[in-house]
Amino acid sequence: MKRTSRDIRTANRYEVLRQIIAASPTSRQELAAATGLSLATVATLVGELLDLRMITEVGFEDSAGGRPRGLVAVNASGGALIGVDIAETYVHVELFDLALNVLARADEDMRPGESLPEQVVSHVAAAVGSVVAQAGIEGARVLGVGVSVPGQVDRATGVSEYAPNWNWHDVPLLDLLTEHIAYPLYLDNPLRASAVAELWFGAARGRGDAVVVNLGTGVGAGLVLGGGLHRGVSNSAGEWGHTTIVLDGRLCRCGKHGCVEAYVGASGIMLNLRELSPDSTLLHPEDQTATIAALAEGLRTGDPVAVKAIRDTVKYLGAGVADLVNLFNPEVVVLSSWVAAALGEPLVAEVREAVARHALPRPFAATEIVLSPIPTDPVCLGAATFALEGALQSVGQRNAKRTTPARSRTAPPS
Amino acid sequence: MKRTSRDIRTANRYEVLRQIIAASPTSRQELAAATGLSLATVATLVGELLDLRMITEVGFEDSAGGRPRGLVAVNASGGALIGVDIAETYVHVELFDLALNVLARADEDMRPGESLPEQVVSHVAAAVGSVVAQAGIEGARVLGVGVSVPGQVDRATGVSEYAPNWNWHDVPLLDLLTEHIAYPLYLDNPLRASAVAELWFGAARGRGDAVVVNLGTGVGAGLVLGGGLHRGVSNSAGEWGHTTIVLDGRLCRCGKHGCVEAYVGASGIMLNLRELSPDSTLLHPEDQTATIAALAEGLRTGDPVAVKAIRDTVKYLGAGVADLVNLFNPEVVVLSSWVAAALGEPLVAEVREAVARHALPRPFAATEIVLSPIPTDPVCLGAATFALEGALQSVGQRNAKRTTPARSRTAPPS
């Protein structure tokens, strides 16, 4: 979308808080130097964050003879944020303080066949209730709940337009969640949640252009461009999993042929293994998690079938990542989500070699390829960050109340 | 790259001038409404453009009882800009006034085998000399010369890092051009030139996210994201021509297999035709221009071989454009460059149908697919626009002179 002055103010507010979270305590002068914003702009934004109690004054530092400089730090206990990662087989929920430390966790497993929106929503409601109870947080202090749901999401209306694994079409998920959860809700998908987690807290922090490659049951690319999340005109950018890598190739669950996901998603990897060695003991039919775990273990011990199955996968994955390097020319490609976490550095090393073979020399030379450094679930963290961004955006909306009608506190940002 | 405050100021300066060129005469109030910038910011930027003589005051308009509003318009004769399109087989040069009207043109054909940098540079110098002489412009009024050269370009150093058609590696093109051309020079490549032309004057104007697909001898995608050109970290974003569409497929001139360009570049189209009908009279071996012209004529007259050859091409092109739609979720995809111009609307209609088959429904529904509406050579226009942007950027540098050393006037912007 085209950036307006308001977008720029909001982006600057994010940038200042991001910097304070990264380096508390810090001074307005340091923030101006780190963000490239003017001292006057930083002072205004710091004032807003102080008013919100998201940060606090924590004393002064000497400034070599000049006036002592006021220091600010994130006010970790100034509020709580909840991140919800709805995946195909589980719901993870984490509750964070404002420094984005995890205070409480809850998991719900979804049984095969539990695919009705109401079933999924009741798991989410149970897990959210659990983390609030564990943390002993008064409800009033929860600033918001970010919810990541796979597939294509209209965040303005809170509708899950298409979730391939459950064959959902136009499910009004936000409305269903609102019946159980009283906090402000922010809906988006795992591509964007993991990208925003890397942007605020991971390998994309301080980078202008980064691509976060999600390798899970579904695959896709979260895009950080020009220092912010690129959503596209209808919030569906990053559908790398459904770009064509083998024209007329394998059937993908999206109904098309030859998509990247059909070769490098968890099911695609299982199929690569089956084609290589139909009777392999590494293969756990119907259990993606167990199969990927077995392949990871096989990689560690040098099992030749595991090594070959991953190499076969990386033939596709390397070409697909090279496409992203050629198109976006990013500073960093981050491999994220559970398949990447399970296969770890041995996978990354293979991917680097394959990308070197496929990408053009100039963009390849400019790009690092790394595993996500985020130690917890990046999708939960990113979802909670959407809630944080929403709270920061609603500040701007409250300030702007005199000229434009304020929105309902529970509406997601457009 | 990460946006700094200076980048934002420069982008705002572009935006205001773009809007004045689009809708002269106009008032500061209208500019503020059209750009989303504050009236104070617009007033400052208009002041800078007036100082530069790029625009002029042209009277007042009534404002329904309030103070009459000052009107400004582009000062077409306030300077001249030159755009240079170096292609594989020709050099086109156009000289523009500040309203980007073409005042003079010169063409030089390059014979097969003329591939030495010195040969190319002497064609450029001759054509630039010709347009200046034709227009009767005093040298001092030429604000700059933008030069587009195919392949990968380091615009900061003015080096052509790789030009596949001539097998150039690390040619210091800007240094060579400086020996013949005394005006400020700005080097970049046709992908970015045609994208910036669409952004300022074509189908991407006023759009946040647009992809400009260049179909010529080489192919690639110029990226307009968040209302500005996306260059990537080393100015090589947009290499869509070298993304993989058929893993292990046709050999591409880049040395890899299965690239989009190998199927939809002019040579790729000729090969598609040859595979379909080796003895077709449409085929002019060694002459891309004549073959594409014959196919275009065949499309118009319904020649079944021409129709089938284009349909075979669109099988790849549609999948490749769908990949861009899925990844970027743009408002518009613009088909540009000489192959697209020659094949025209019949090609666009086929591409639309094929993209509908390949892309995901949500991003497809949000995307228009159109032919470039720019009636002249978009690459010349875009190259001249780089010179205009350079002149606008050097304003900012002059204003900033007190704190940072001014750069040489002939250095390209970093």
Automatic annotation (TrEMBL), chains A, B:
One of the record's GO molecular function terms: kinase activity
One Pfam family per UniProt: ROK
The keyword Transcription is annotated on this UniProt entry: no
Gene3D superfamilies: 3.30.420.40, Winged helix-like DNA-binding domain superfamily/Winged helix DNA-binding domain
Alphabetized UniProt keyword annotations: Kinase, Transferase
Family: Belongs to the ROK (NagC/XylR) family.
Protein name: NBD/HSP70 family sugar kinase
